[in-house]
UniProtKB/TrEMBL annotation:
Domain (C2) ranges: 1-112, 119-242
Swiss-Prot/TrEMBL GO biological process terms: cellular response to calcium ion
Organism ancestry: Eukaryota, Metazoa, Chordata, Craniata, Vertebrata
GO cellular component annotations of the record: plasma membrane
CDD domains the UniProt entry points to: C2A_Copine, C2B_Copine, vWA_copine_like
Entry keyword annotation includes Calcium: yes
A single MF term (Gene Ontology): metal ion binding
Organism annotation: Rhagologus leucostigma
Record-given protein name: CPNE9 protein
Length: 529
């Protein structure tokens, strides 16, 4: 996920237990964060204490780093603080950060539990992404009557932008192109993040130097001027003209006026939207699962089979499904997941199918929650005959068909294919992916077993953009990982599955954004209260 996505949680409680004899409770909320891959909880922080209320709205907020691809478990303990240090436990709630971000408008209400036989009231959580100023500026400048620096011909001017740092030093943040042989250059418009220009501080000095380009790199200084983001942004209504001054000339010559002027021709600001903006605006992630039932996996009843589940351990297929599904389901409001198998002979007539519903219901292939998918998967293993070939295209086209029905950005589809990787319909699959790359969908492929997965690597398109019959994929929508890279010898399955989920899901936010951007879809604003 984008590094540095910070989410601010605001906490309120309603109808808390009243533990005090003489007045109402004095609540404080303590947040604990679960250490990844373990069952240990660490205190992260606490709100202020609010005296004498059962419906507190806390001012002190929790700011957490947010990663879409990780399960970030939180525990909120509500206690009533007594004046001599003792405290009463008023209840607790467990919630994943993704559930709060993924809930409507980033608001989640949960019952507090943990005091036997008592109703403990509720906790309300509001998640907001902290703006680390994601605005992007586009501006264009020109200059007039700059000093002539070249012996033959006129100057070859370019601009250098610097932002000022807290300590008064300057950091270069942009260079324009060189316009050859003119004292009245017009530079091309350029874009720059506001962060880069002024670190989000609108009144901080932006210094601009004007140089005359020389081939040998010893560019001549023409002059400089200073401004700020705020001053530049006023130019949306009128041209702003800056005098270019050369301090050395100013000292020497009494009659010196300036070394020319620079005019800001245009200035506009756009917001860069983030994954969280779309999720908060109501974009739903729809999760579909496709599982490889080809004979190359081995007979499910044999311990050597990739589908073999011992009484003590889930199969590789079930583990991968659970790891990825448990995170995705926080962002899917109905928690209903269509689940298919491919490459098997299906009862009653033993026809080969490449997209049979695991729950055996053609009308409604959706299973309730990841548990429902696992159940149907185990059920199917008992009823179908593993066969072949391994065709991906039918199930990709099926999800693409659904994705094509709603392209306004309110729905985004993620297809998880779990396979032993020996693919038979490479050409059709490439064609299907290239077509799907213009739709609101992503494909995750988890390869299980010992095969060489070269074909999968090609589909992943990270190195070389995928193409089919001369058509190139509009965007990279496939993420492939081999399951074996995540099975560690120490046997800490929880940790290794968390790593697997993290790597498969890491590209989804970027892939969703690239779809929205190419379609110019802006996140729907969360309705004001």
């Amino acid at each position: 996920s984008v590094p540095g996505t910070k989410v601010e949680l605001t906490v309120s409680c309603r109808n808390l237990l009243d533990m005090d004899t003489f007045s109402k409770s004095d609540p404080v909320v303590v947040l604990f964060v679960q250490v990844s891959g373990s069952s240990e909880w660490k205190e992260f922080g606490r709100t202020e204490v609010i005296d004498n209320t059962l419906n507190p709205d806390f001012v002190r907020k929790f700011v957490l780093d947010y990663y879409f691809e990780e399960k970030q478990n939180l525990r909120f303990d509500v206690v009533s603080q007594h004046f001599f240090g003792a405290q009463d436990f008023l209840g607790q709630a467990f919630v994943a950060l993704g559930e709060v971000v993924g809930s409507q408008r980033g608001r989640l209400e949960r019952p507090l539990t943990g005091v036997p036989g008592k109703r403990c009231g509720t906790i309300l959580l509001l998640a907001e992404e902290l703006s680390n100023c994601r605005d992007i500026v586009t501006m264009q400048l020109c200059a007039n009557k700059l000093d002539k620096k070249d012996f033959f011909g006129k100057s070859d001017p370019f601009l250098v932008f610097y932002r000022s740092n807290e300590d008064g030093t300057f950091t270069i943040c942009h260079k324009t192109e060189v316009v050859k042989n003119t004292l009245n250059p017009v530079w091309q418009p350029f874009t720059i993040p506001v962060r880069a220009l002024c670190n989000g501080d609108y009144d901080r000095t932006v210094k601009i130097d004007v140089y005359d380009w020389d081939r040998d790199g010893s560019h001549d200084f023409i002059g400089e001027f200073a401004t700020s983001y705020r001053e530049l942004s006023r130019a949306q209504s009128q041209f702003t003209v800056y005098e270019v001054l050369n301090p050395r000339k100013k000292c020497k010559k009494k009659k010196y006026v300036n070394s020319g002027t620079v005019t800001l021709l245009s200035f506009s600001v756009e917001s860069e939207f983030t994954f969280v903006d779309y999720i908060r605006g109501g974009t739903q992630l729809n999760f579909t699962v496709a599982i490889d039932f080809t004979a190359s996996n081995g007979l499910p009843s044999q311990p050597t089979s990739l589908h073999y589940a011992s009484p003590y351990q889930l199969s590789a297929y079930a583990l991968a499904l659970k790891a990825v599904g448990e995170i995705i389901q926080d962002y899917d409001s109905d928690k209903l997941f269509p689940a298919y198998g491919f490459g098997a002979k299906v009862p009653p007539d033993g026809k080969i199918s490449h997209q049979f519903p695991l729950n055996n219901n053609v009308e409604n292939p959706s299973c309730a929650g990841i548990e429902g998918v696992l159940e149907s998967y185990l059920q199917s293993l008992r009823t179908v005959q593993l066969y072949g070939p391994t065709n991906f295209a039918p199930v990709i086209n099926q999800v693409a068909g659904t994705a094509a029905q709603v392209t306004d950005g309110s729905q985004y589809h993620v297809l998880l294919i779990i396979t032993d990787g020996v693919i038979s319909d490479m050409l059709q699959t490439k064609e299907a992916i290239v077509t799907a790359s213009s739709l609101p969908m992503s494909i995750i492929i988890v390869g299980v077993g010992p095969a060489e997965f070269e074909a999968m690597e090609e589909l992943d398109g990270d190195e070389v953009r995928l193409s089919s019959r001369g058509r190139y994929a509009e965007r990279d929508i496939v993420q492939f990982v081999p399951f074996r890279d995540y099975v560690d010898d120490s046997g800490n399955q929880v940790l290794s599955m968390a790593r697997l989920a993290k790597d498969v899901l890491a590209e989804i936010p970027e892939q969703l954004l690239s779809y929205m951007k190419t379609r110019d879809i802006k996140p729907r604003r969360a309705d004001p209260e």
